[in-house]
Design goal:
Elements lengths: L1 E3 L4 E6 L6 E2 L4 E7 L2 E6 L4 E6 L6 E2 L4 E6 L1
Antiparallel strand pairs: 1-8, 2-4, 2-7, 3-6, 4-5, 6-8
Length: 70
């Protein structure tokens, strides 16, 4: 399952690690956009298979930032 950015911004902090089992609504990372912190949460439970971004990286709305496997 692809997890996409819901806003354009910068990856401020990564909260989850690859291989970690996440429940629905667990934070994967936090974006910074217009001086606001916006969490990106898991849309469903699963294992975080891949992070496609790193801290400090700019992302666009709709960009795939992580892969979850249920």
């Amino acid at each position: 399952m692809e997890v996409k950015a819901q806003i354009t911004g910068t990856v401020w902090k990564i909260e989850a690690q690859v291989g970690e089992t996440l429940e629905e609504e667990d934070e994967i990372l936090i974006f910074e956009s217009m001086k606001m912190e916006v969490p990106l949460c898991a849309p469903d439970s699963g294992i975080l298979k891949e992070l496609l971004v790193s801290e400090g990286e700019s992302v666009e709305e709709g960009q795939v930032v992580a892969i979850l496997e249920g």
